[in-house]
Design goal:
By secondary structure, the chain is of the alpha/beta class. Helices cover 35% and strands 21% of the residues. The chain is globular.
């Protein structure tokens, strides 16, 4: 079989202006980035604001294995399947970060014959959105340190600066740094560190802003640290909110591309779900809902992370309501959760499949807590046996969910026709009673504990001294009535990646709590998760190289 890059390069793509016509977007409302990429003008949503929204379909999954389970691939295949049924459909996905591209996970443009294109450009610089966010973030950092060096009129306490620098790359060496700058009689030393850009507050703000005015207001409200008296300091105190917004004016506009089958795809915003809120931008989703009858979107990693944050943060803030949830599962991942080493997951093992099903069972239960009955989509692999599929089908039925087998990697939209038909049928005959999990006016601890107990299955929560001190400070300044975004491992329902299946009898360990005042949520960091990932022993970057034509990039996946 051809590689993903070869399949992508051989695809017959439409001119992006013709893709836009499928959504009735006028050519004058496009800002072209070559023939295959464009930004959509802010006016498109305004022109269509009176139209009824289409149906919003969220694709989530079980907890992934280190090899990934194909959630984005299923999202793309489902959109193509709906298109094959004659539906007006639009994808709404996140932008890939270059950290995973050059690390271990690879890109985020699907795989096989269910991809968005051009995959190489989307996975690398794309339209420069993440670069713009990096620059905006680091402008704030530069101005903070310059203000202190130039006399510190705001009386910033260098030990209480909470704002970090960022870059869109995995680099563990930058997690903690010491800055030492001396000039004539002035010496300035401060501890700092880097986050990966997709975990930054700037990324979250861009994804949660409704328009340019909302964007600037959120940037103004960023709390970057505290003065010597413990008073919070905002970006507006530095008087640079206008400059930061200017760097982001184009990054706020959603990007239009297409699938290999020419289905329109809006790809915009890229927060990770294990260390950030894991959803594409509100602007992209709302625009897609006005332009299409069916919008397929995804939220990162398992339903315990991306889907929970989609419901409790994005939907709450944007006034959105998912009409359907599709849970992606693979038999190999369920066997892995049942105790089978990843080297042996290709071998039939009904006992391990039954044992590992408890992971999918918990995710089904969790989605139902939001008032939605999910569909389970099996991402089928060639080594899955009929006996395993039949067992999984019966287990899903026992838990009130239909199992639909898909084969989008090899067949594209054709391999998702059964899933597309199931989605359409269910949407025509079913109305959910969507509700968020908790009241944001509860205390910080109550919100964390509800997520820990209800979604993760924990007995309770343990807080470090640092976390307790941060919660107290957030409460003192009156910013505790915000949703909570928990950062934890994606590989387990718990905060320990080694606890597979459906862990019980443990406490979630929260080591740090951070206020994201501009994004309007509170991050609770649990377990050993890092906001600046590191590269693996053999990074994917070692396999990426240029072809002899000087244009084709080989080794991307």
């Amino acid at each position: 079989m051809l590689t993903d890059v070869e399949i992508n390069k051989n695809a017959k793509l439409l001119d992006i202006k013709d893709v836009a016509k499928k959504l009735n977007i006028d050519e004058n409302d496009l800002e072209l980035y070559g023939k295959n990429k464009a930004k959509i003008s802010n006016e498109v949503f305004n022109k269509n604001s009176s139209k009824q929204d289409g149906k919003l379909i969220l694709v989530s999954s079980i907890n992934p294995t280190p090899l990934g389970e194909g959630k984005t691939t299923i999202s793309i295949g489902l959109a193509d399947g709906l298109s094959r049924l004659g539906k007006r459909v639009c994808l709404a996905l996140r932008e890939p970060s270059m950290g995973p591209v050059f690390g271990i996970k690879g890109g985020a443009t699907g795989g096989g014959y269910a991809q968005v294109a051009p995959m190489d450009e989307i996975n690398l610089h794309f339209t420069g959105d993440i670069h713009a966010m990096t620059s905006a973030n680091n402008l704030i950092s530069a101005c903070i340190d310059n203000h202190i060096f130039q006399g510190n009129e705001l009386r910033i306490d260098p030990k209480q600066v909470t704002w970090k620098r960022c870059m869109d790359m995995n680099d563990r060496a930058l997690r903690s740094i010491t800055m030492d700058y001396s000039f004539k009689d002035r010496t300035y030393i401060r501890d700092d560190g880097f986050d990966i850009t997709v975990a930054s507050e700037i990324m979250a703000i861009v994804c949660l802003s409704n328009d340019i005015k909302d964007l600037e207001n959120r940037i103004s409200n960023i709390i970057f640290g505290y003065d010597v008296d413990g008073k919070p300091l905002k970006v507006s105190d530095l008087k640079i909110q206008g400059a930061v917004t200017a760097l982001l004016k184009d990054a706020l506009k959603p990007n239009l591309v297409q699938t290999l089958e020419n289905t329109p795809a809006i790809i915009h915003g890229g927060p990770f779900a294990n260390i950030a809120h894991g959803c594409n931008s509100i602007v992209a989703t709302k625009t897609a809902l006005k332009l299409a009858d069916y919008v397929v979107t995804e939220a990162g990693f398992g339903a315990d992370l991306g889907a929970e944050k989609f419901m409790d943060i994005k939907c709450r803030k944007a006034g959105l309501k998912p009409d359907m949830v599709v849970l992606v599962a693979t038999i190999k991942a369920l066997k892995y959760n049942g105790g089978v080493p990843k080297e042996e997951v290709k071998e039939e093992n009904l006992e391990a499949l039954r044992s590992g099903f408890v992971n999918l069972q918990k995710h089904i239960e969790n989605i139902k807590k939001y008032g939605i009955e999910p569909i389970v989509a099996l991402n089928r692999f060639e080594f899955d046996t009929d006996s395993e599929i039949e067992l999984l089908r019966n287990l899903c039925m026992e838990n009130g969910s239909n199992l639909i087998v898909t084969d989008v990697f090899a067949k594209g939209g054709e391999g998702a026709l059964d899933l597309a038909n199931e989605v359409v049928t269910k949407l025509d005959n079913y109305s959910n009673d969507f509700k968020v999990l908790y009241d944001e006016n509860l205390s910080i601890r109550e919100k964390i504990e509800i997520i820990a107990k209800e979604i993760y299955g924990a007995d309770g929560v343990e807080y470090s001294e640092e976390a307790n001190a941060s919660i107290k400070k957030i409460e003192e300044i009156g910013r505790d009535k915000l949703p909570v975004c928990i950062a934890k491992t994606q590989y387990s329902l718990s905060d320990d990646p080694k606890l597979l299946g459906r862990p019980t009898g443990y406490n979630l360990k929260v080591r740090e709590v951070i206020l994201k005042n501009g994004a309007e949520f509170i991050v609770a960091i649990a377990g050993s998760i890092m906001t600046m990932p590191g590269l693996p022993k053999v990074p994917a970057a070692e396999k990426i190289h240029m072809a002899e034509d000087g244009e084709t990039i080989l080794g991307l996946f």
